Amino acid sequence: MRQSVSKLTTFDIVAKGVRSLLRVLSVWLSQVFDIVVPSKTERSIAASDVAQYTTRCNRIIALGAIMTVTEYVGLVDELAAAIAAGRLKPGDRLLPQRTFAYEKGIAASTAGRVYAELLRRGLVVGEVGRGTFVAGGSPSPSSMRGEPRDGRVDLEFNFPTVAAQFALIAKSLAGLQRVDALRGAVGPVTQGRLESARAVTAEFMTTPRWRPPAAGFVFTGCGRQSIAAAVSSLVPVGGRLGVEAITYATIKSIAGRLGVTVVPIAMDGEGVRPDALARTHRACALSALYLQPVLHNPIGHSMPATRREEITKLAGKLDMFIIEDLVYGFLSDDPPLAASAADRCIVVDSHSKRIAPGIAVGFLHVPSGLRERVATTVRAGAWSVSPLALDLGTRLMADGTAAEITRLKRTDARHRQAIVAKCLSGFEIEADARSYHTWLHLPDGWRSEAFAAAAARFGISITPSSAFTVAPGHAPNTVRLALGLPTHEQLRAAGNKLAQLLATHPDETDVTE
């Protein structure tokens, strides 16, 4: 009798435990799979229901384990076809991955692979905490627009322009009408001409906080070619280049064509994080680091002195070179990282933003131990500066024209930032008053891709944040406004239109082009 009571007690304890477990399971089912468990069964679930659920779980696990590449890609193609046919439109939110897995009868890990492939193809964008959305018609790399668009207010391309620059340039270049001057300008780039250009450039770039030696300058056909030459010199094919998690969009295509993998490094409000850089390098070595420490594009911030010191010291400890993009540095008195770490930094700059796009001169300032390697890379890559462009750039620097245009653009940038700040005063913007960029944070309801498409219908070109991110699906809910190209009146009108659009819910406007 005592033994039977003991067995009964044990049975009751087990039964109680099972009932508790089933109650937890019922709540979990209702939350994760939207399976509503009737109140009658809250205290117990029929054995057949449990068996049915277990069978389904096992089947899903088995499917995930045995699913072939063809079947996995088939699911991706199915969603891609729905997007292409318009059944899934830009801005539509995809099902959560677990729900998608349940409906398709696949493992959650397989659903993750499907969504990752959609991200890789550029068909969707992911926003942390919000989900996965159909992209707003992002162009493929081969069809990406390389020039400003006619007929729109272009806040996508940044060519800082002030009205007085054309008269100043014309006056400076008037001497080229002489035959002897033109003969020299269009003649070959000799060693003597390069030495003269280096001396003029060194004097022009010298500030109280940075005095670059003239021998360190290497010239190219533009700023992008300078970046390409630096990357090609430092990173082998198949190598890894560290970049800021949000960075200059074109670095991705440059690296891709050179066979280099770009690796995003986490950032905070002061720029790239030293701990993230060290951790990434330990995981798999980086060959070099590409940074924009002064007036970052697209965000506009500059590294403070403490962060600069941390990064340069860490680069020395890791034996890593820094490719320092200083293209927008002319708008600031902040020195380059090279001012305190000359042996660790290659400085990249050009005249296209400082003077005008037609002055197609890029240049690098290179540590002495790398100069011959970089110069050889420039020649081998066919990135050498043209004779006429080199002559134009040298003339404009030597006679003070470039300095005067720089002064005017510094004033102009502040004026344009003030215009945009007033137009968008009710919204969150991130910008430096010295910069030609504004990083606009979108209100709830808007996504960057959808907002860019809606702005295009208002005749305004802007750039969604996905263009500046390296890791697929990690774009913040922001857009970049490039302020340099339109007139002040056009910029003000565009700013007011964008404010009206921001105040409108996406459902109230057609966001497709």
Q: Brief overview, please?
A:
The chain has 513 residues and is α/β, with parallel strands linked by helices.
Describe the fold and architecture.
By secondary structure, the chain is an alpha/beta fold. It folds into four domains: 20-66, no CATH class; 69-134, Winged helix-like DNA-binding domain superfamily/Winged helix DNA-binding domain (Arc Repressor Mutant, subunit A); 143-161 and 406-508, Aspartate Aminotransferase, domain 1 (Alpha-Beta Complex); 189-399, Type I PLP-dependent aspartate aminotransferase-like (Major domain) (Aspartate Aminotransferase, domain 2, 3-Layer(aba) Sandwich), CATH 3.40.640.10. 45% of the residues lie in helices and 12% in strands. It is built from 17 helices and 17 strands. It has helices at 2-32, 47-66, 69-84, 97-104, 108-120, 165-172, 179-186, 191-205, 223-234, 250-257, 274-283, 305-317, 371-380, 387-398, 401-423, 448-457, 488-502, and strands spanning 124-127, 131-134, 153-154, 217-220, 240-244, 261-265, 267-268, 271-272, 288-291, 321-325, 345-350, 362-365, 429-430, 437-441, 460-461, 463-464, 478-482. The strands form five sheets. The protein has a seven-stranded mixed β-sheet, sandwiched between helices. Strand 1 and strand 2 form a beta hairpin. Helix 8 (191-205) packs parallel to helix 14 (387-398) and helix 9 (223-234) packs across helix 13. The longest helix has 31 residues, at 2-32. The protein starts with a helix and ends in an 11-residue tail after the last helix.
